[in-house]
Write a structure and sequence with these properties.
Elements lengths: L16 E2 L6 E2 L8 H7 L9 E7 L4 E4 L3 E4 L5 H9 L7 E8 L7 E11 L5 E14 L3 H8 L6 E6 L6 H13 L5 E7 L2 E6 L2 H14 L2 E13 L4 E12 L7 E3 L2 H6 L6 E7 L2 E5 L6 E5 H6 L4 E3 L5 E10 L4 E3 L2 E3 L2 E7 L10 E5 L10 E6 L8 H4 L9 E7 L1 H4 L9 E2 L6 E2 L9 H17 L9 E3 L25 E2 L20 E3 L1
Length: 517
């Protein structure tokens, strides 16, 4: 009885009927036939494609989407499933579900299980599953076939250059390119002295790559073209385009002397500044006042300047005493504290008693007994045109740049790291020519890895991966003082590799044919 209306309502029951073909008891439907008999009389997958041939480029691992588009898709990905379904034509049926059936990668087969619906006898809807086999036919794309025939068959060449005595900028830029997959269209990458060359099969790919570099580094570019061939009958000209992209020579931790005109326009900052960060703009900080400014690429190239001293000229000091003189300040996303410090050069121990009283911006990091790296202006022979324009300028004896952990690193020298970086597949100049020194590059790369460990901001925009070969030591040594900087495990990514021991989930349905009434 319906309690709300107070009326008696008869309970509804679902009746059952016999199948008109086999006589099995079943719920009623429009065809009065069970699903098994209905599927035996009507085959809704008749006329649908069961096998399709697709073109696959084994070099760049892309698939041809007719007529001329090549798309990149990993096996069993959503992009590949969409590509496979679009290659089929469905007539009078509706696609309900699609999924991959696992096949070995070397089998050159992709199997997709599809489920379709169709209205059959007297309005009854029949649902059925079937497999479609996609046969991969190896067919190299135009750019890969051109590069295989002749590696010099490029259309655009982007020449990245930075005229400094180290490659720290290129190590960092390489990781940014890998993370954003910016060089995926490059047919060849070549490492040369003071730069990297990227070769592309299309001019638009080179222009797109230059746009990416300009967003992560202050650059200026120029271009030129050379006629390669000409077809007078069809009036078609083929050119080779060369783009020269110059990265500004200012690097992180460089000591800068601002030109007088630029310093005045920035509010009389400096003139001695430290470059703290380089992205699409240059972040400069005054170590004695914490005054700071940002220079974008246009501003820098209108009034270019060079470094007074670079990171290769850093000298190790020991902190004898330090006294903070200001509160903690946030400058360019980093924390600094002004402090008066007494330091001495490590190389002077046992020779003289020279002590320098300086002001530093590292009051939040340093304490008596610590080691620091800085620039020795007391004994340096400076030759800079901008510095000579300042009359009566008194230079500090020392400018500290960062805290040093070299003494603690000596204890862990030779031990592997728990993380690793990926690298671009680059061709390297023949070291016998003398243009590329492998030992120098290895030492600079080791310094770059140390910078990543010490600076969390530097590794914020790059991808670090777990090192599977790393095995932590069972014996942990207790050392006095602060621990050596390292990369936390939560910042590491898993280097995904498909193995044979992956667990596969397979749903075996009792019957593929289902009838919906």
């Amino acid at each position: 009885m319906d309690q709300q209306s107070g009326m008696f309502v008869v309970a509804r029951t679902v009746g059952s009927v016999l199948c008109c073909d086999c006589g099995v008891l079943m719920p009623p439907n429009a065809a009065n036939m069970c699903a098994k008999c209905l599927s035996s009389h009507v085959n809704i997958t008749e006329g649908l494609q069961k096998q399709v041939t697709i073109n696959f480029c084994p070099e760049c691992r892309r698939y041809l989407q007719p007529p001329k588009t090549w798309i990149k898709a990993e096996r069993e990905s959503k992009e590949l499933l969409t590509f496979c379904v679009k290659r089929l034509k469905f007539k009078d049926v509706r696609l309900v579900h699609a999924e991959f059936v696992y096949t070995e990668p070397h089998s050159k087969r992709i199997i997709v299980k599809l489920k379709v619906q169709k209205e059959v006898l007297h309005g009854a809807i029949l649902e059925k599953s079937y497999d479609v086999v996609y046969v991969e036919h190896d067919n190299m794309c135009e750019s890969c076939s051109r590069s295989q025939a002749n590696p010099d068959q490029w259309v655009a060449n982007v020449q990245l250059r930075q005229y400094v005595p180290h490659r720290r900028t290129f190590f960092y830029l390489e990781q940014l390119i890998l993370k954003h997959n910016a060089a995926s269209q490059a047919i060849r990458i070549k490492q040369i002295n003071q730069g990297i060359d990227f070769f592309f099969s299309n001019r638009s790919h080179g222009v797109k790559f230059i746009e990416f570099v300009s967003k992560v580094a202050p650059v200026r570019s120029s271009d030129d073209k050379k006629q390669k061939s000409h077809d007078p009958k069809s009036n078609i000209y083929n050119y080779q385009y060369t783009f020269i992209v110059e990265i500004c020579p200012i690097c992180r931790e460089d000591l800068i002397c601002l030109p007088p005109k630029l310093a005045t326009s920035l509010g009389n900052l400096g003139p001695l500044m430290i470059c703290m960060k380089v992205s699409n703009s240059i972040a400069l900080v005054d170590p004695r006042t914490l005054g700071h400014c940002f220079l974008d690429a246009d501003r820098y190239w209108r009034e270019p300047f060079v470094s007074l001293l670079s990171s290769r000229q850093l000298v190790e000091y020991i902190v004898l005493d330090i006294d903070p003189v200001s509160r903690e300040a946030n400058v360019a996303g980093s924390r600094y504290v002004l402090a008066d410090a007494q330091v001495a050069r490590v190389s002077d121990f046992g020779r003289n008693d020279t002590i320098f009283n300086i002001r530093t911006h590292l009051g939040h990091l340093l304490k008596p007994g610590d080691y620091a790296l800085g620039y020795d202006l007391y004994g340096a022979n400076l030759n800079n045109a901008d510095l000579d324009k300042y009359k009566g300028l008194v230079l500090p004896d020392t400018v500290l740049i960062k805290k040093s952990y070299e003494e603690k690193r000596q204890k862990k020298r030779g031990k592997p790291r728990s993380w690793k970086l990926k690298s671009l597949n680059m061709d390297v100049d023949d070291p016998t020519r003398g243009k590329v020194d492998p030992e120098k590059i290895n030492s600079e790369y080791e310094e770059f890895l140390r910078d990543l460990e010490e600076n969390p901001e530097l590794r914020f925009n790059i991808s670090l991966y777990r090192n599977k070969e790393y095995k932590p030591s069972e014996v942990t040594s207790v050392s006095d003082g602060e621990e050596l900087p390292s990369v936390p495990l939560e910042e590491l990514l898993a280097d995904l590799e498909l193995g044979d021991d992956e667990e596969e989930e397979e749903d075996d349905e009792a019957g593929d044919d289902t009838m919906m009434g």
